[in-house]
# Entry
Amino acid sequence: MFTLFHKAKSRSCSIVWLLEELGVPYETKAVTIRGMDGSGAIDPANPHPHGKVPALEHDGQRVFEIAAITAYLTDLYPEKALAPVPGDPLRGEYLSWLAYRPGVLEPAMMMRRLGVKHIYGAMGWAPAEEVEVFLNKTLSERAYLLGENFSAADIATGGAIDFLMKFKLIGETPMLKAYTESLAARPAYQKAMA
Ligand SMILES: N[C@@H](CCC(=O)N[C@@H](CS)C(=O)NCC(=O)O)C(=O)O
# Structure
């Protein structure tokens, strides 16, 4: 059994969506998180070291960070075909897209919103406009991040594009809109967001 430490309308919805796509049994434990103004405190019931969501417990293991949880779960269920297995020619691309969300996409968009000047070489991500060009070009060439088939990369990083667009943190283009609409049409997405 998986226990997901979760908060509605937060990033942990990505993992609810993934668990629904996998169709495996899980339970959610609602936790509280600190507010954007710094109010509140780390919920002691949450195993995440910084009191964030999502965090997952499974067989005595603690897994935190969406990218890590996504890789952990898809590795456990290769037969669900939501991710290329080690040795598959798309494996490297898959892992790259998992890392892209927290390592490039989110910081680039957040820093732009906060008005922080991009510093090449110092910052570990590309400027927001360059990230937008790359994502639009990628999705003009293929239906999903890995090609013509949906994968868990579309949940982790595609889900972030969806989330960033809702909050107007990333430019809405016909390409990104069509892509996120195709994700939102999935029954597992709808169940998770409800
Ligand atoms: N890098 C983390 C981000 C997790 C995260 O920041 N979650 C937010 C909710 S959307 C949170 O828990 N915020 C509370 C806090 O920062 O204390 C991941 O990808 O899992």
